[in-house]
Specification:
mainly alpha, 47 residues, rod-shaped
Length: 47
C-alpha cells in the first residue's frame, strides 16, 4: 500500500493529461461536426 501511495503523486499529472487530451478531442470532434453541418465560422479566416 505505501508503494501505491507514493505512486499517486506521479500518476496524477498523467491522469490530468489524459483528461485534457480527451476534452480536446471532444472539442475538435464537435467543431468538425459543426463544420460538416454547414456552419463555417473559420472559413473567412482561413482564406
Amino acid at each position: 500500500m505505501p508503494a501505491a501511495g507514493r505512486a499517486w503523486p506521479v500518476a496524477w499529472p498523467i491522469v490530468a493529461l489524459l483528461l485534457q487530451s480527451f476534452a480536446a478531442q471532444a472539442a475538435v470532434l464537435i467543431e468538425w461536426r459543426r463544420m460538416r453541418a454547414g456552419h463555417r465560422p473559420y472559413a473567412a479566416r482561413c482564406r
